[in-house]
Design brief:
The chain has 289 residues and is of the alpha+beta class. The protein has nine helices and eight strands. The chain is elongated, with a radius of gyration of 36 Å.
Length: 289
């Protein structure tokens, strides 16, 4: 189906074209309406067409060496894909599948070369679109690396949580114990030894049984317990992240082992088939020949 020039004007890869070139290109390219879950091409297929999404979404995915699906990008309106195979005349590097009903503009290699030759500025728009898709793919591959649990949790810490962690850490140290012991000793000394009688000018402000000290210690215990609970909740969250990471590692290891088993089974079958062929040849050949 022919493409409308007004539609090309709305899409970013064609906005650098002037009206004449855009009108010429609109007559050359095709506009396709595709249903949901339609496979456009698979990794390894030959590629001679570049696609620009006019409406809908297209999923670009690959499979790793253990057969796990990796979604590289979701191409939306104005995004292009399939450019690598078009530019280097190689095979497709990913599988493209429509996630929703979609409208796609198909640009062939000859049409693309003619467009770039006639208006070199248009190449900048195409390069920008290619760079955008590459950045998305790089981000997906970066985030697929198994994360460090401590780093994954620490990156989401709020200032209050950092303060709570520091207080919980400090309250469990020997320094905190010695400071509390020194504080209690000074407080009790000031209120029991009668330092005002020694001419120091310090009067008893909390005489025995030290009601004010008791209230201060109770408040300290309440606040410390709250900070410790906040820190423990963070540690529980960190443990959950660590458990998820360990689960992912186990799943990947299981897939790797399964892939190795499958390869060894194929090698065994090939070896046995060759041995049978050798036995048949030896049976057909006369003895002493």
């Amino acid at each position: 189906m022919a493409c409308d020039e007004a539609l090309l004007r709305e899409l970013k890869p064609f906005q650098l074209l002037d009206d004449d070139h855009r009108a010429t290109l609109a007559k050359l390219v095709d506009l396709s309406d595709l249903p949901e879950r339609r496979v456009l091409f698979r990794a390894g297929d030959p590629g001679e067409t570049l696609y620009v999404v006019a409406a809908g979404e297209v999923e670009l995915a690959i499979e790793d060496n253990v057969g796990e699906k990796i979604v590289l990008a979701i191409a939306g309106k104005g995004d292009l894909f399939g450019e690598l195979a078009l530019l280097d005349e190689g095979s497709r590097t990913a599988t493209a599948t429509t996630r929703t009903p979609a409208q796609l503009i198909e640009v062939g290699r000859d049409d693309l070369l003619r467009l770039v030759q006639q208006q070199p500025d248009a190449a900048m728009g195409l390069l920008a679109a290619v760079a955008s898709m590459t950045r998305r793919a790089n981000e997906v591959l970066r985030t697929r690396v198994i994360p460090n649990a401590n780093q994954a949790v620490d990156e989401r810490l709020t200032p209050l949580q950092r303060i709570a962690d520091w207080i919980a850490w400090f309250s469990g140290s020997m320094s905190f114990l010695f400071l509390n012991a020194l504080f209690f000793a000074v407080w009790i000394g000031l209120n029991t030894l009668g330092l005002n009688k020694l001419g120091l000018g310090v009067k008893q402000f909390d005489p025995f049984p030290f009601g004010l000290l008791t209230m201060i210690v109770s408040l300290e215990a309440i606040f410390l317990s709250c900070f410790v609970l906040v820190s423990q909740n963070r540690q529980a969250q960190k443990d959950r992240v660590r458990a998820d990471v360990e689960y992912e590692v186990n799943v990947r290891a299981e897939r790797e082992v399964s892939a190795l088993h499958a390869k060894s089974d194929r090698l065994y079958e090939q070896m046995m088939a060759r041995l049978r062929d050798i036995e048949k040849r030896l049976e057909r050949e006369p003895v002493g020949s």
